[in-house]
Design goal:
With 86 residues, this protein is mainly α. It is built from three helices and no strands.
Amino acid sequence: MADLATVRGSARFWRVFRRQRQAVVALVMLAAITAVVPVTARFFATDPHGLSADALAPPSTRHPLGTDYLGQDGSSTRSCGLRTVC
């Protein structure tokens, strides 16, 4: 069981942390990104490393963020990158 000094130190930390608005916003954003990342694979089912003839295509219903110079889907590559980071 945690001793009393540890509990008091933890409570003090959160009290000071809550006063820092930027830190709270960053924590909320990090939690939101972490919660959304597992779901993105369902929305962007195309292969993130697959090549297509649609090189440098603008955003469309097929490619929500467009494609790069190799024809890779922008939304799929970003989704794959987030899954790797998280």
